[in-house]
């Protein structure tokens, strides 16, 4: 009897684990998708090594975010358009890579950069200086990327600084943006008019982001179709400054469960 009871206990444990894994798989497939931040284009809102879950239900399903392996539709179902200022993950319109940027322009908006200042429909976003963003000049993340600094050259282990501002969009959404250099390659742009069904996205690290300011013909993002949006990024769940997640001494516990603004 004791052996039978032990076998029944093991069987129940296996069943419990299997059910838990199944529920976790369904939860991930239907509602959320994990995403690691591989680059510094969204600093200081998101840092290399941040881990988050993308809310796939925020804008409804498309053929890219569909929970099934093959979806028989194009466009979106249950689609709710993103708001200006949302941080979104999307499928690159050309190469299919997953990107994360901030929604700046909605369909019909006119977007332009003038001397590093963002203009939306002719209205300048408000910029208020903050304390500089400081980080150590060293390889970051699993790819060993080195940060760019506006106080360069900086030796290994030195303090790397970037100018930081609070940018307030016309709808009142505020977030930090970084500037590495004056008159950078995308600090002055032509005026873009966002087509219907598309969005204009930018990285918060303005001098270190390949985004909608750059056309797809030269490797940029260009305008992002609504159906390419995978979901909205709402909260950082975990963060590590190291090249491996198991290096617990590199964990950034102050970023665990931090809301994304």
Structure write-up:
The protein has 261 residues and is mostly beta strands. The chain has two domains: 1-30; 33-259, Umud Fragment, subunit A, CATH 2.10.109. The protein has one helix spanning 2-30, and strands at residues 32-36, 50-55, 61-62, 76-77, 87-91, 98-105, 110-114, 117-120, 123-124, 126-129, 133-136, 159-168, 174-179, 192-193, 198-202, 224-225, 229-239, 258-259. The protein is globular, with a radius of gyration of 21 Å. Mean pLDDT is 85; it is low at 13-29.
Multimerization status: single chain
Mean pLDDT metric: 85
Per DSSP E runs of 2 or more residues, the count of β-strands stands at 18
Q: Spans of 5+ residues with little confidence (pLDDT < 50)?
A: 13-29
What structural category do the secondary elements indicate?
mainly beta
Radius of gyration: 21 Å
Helical region count?
1
CATH level 4 superfamily of the largest domain: Umud Fragment, subunit A
| Helical residues, percent | 10-25%
Question: What does the overall shape look like?
Answer: globular
CATH architecture of the largest domain: Ribbon
In this structure, how is the largest beta sheet organized? 8 strands, antiparallel
> What is the CA–CA distance across the termini?
59 Å
> According to CATH, what is the class of the largest domain?
Mainly Beta
Strand content: 25-35%
What is the string of SSEs from the N terminus onward?
Answer: HEEEEEEEEEEEEEEEEEE
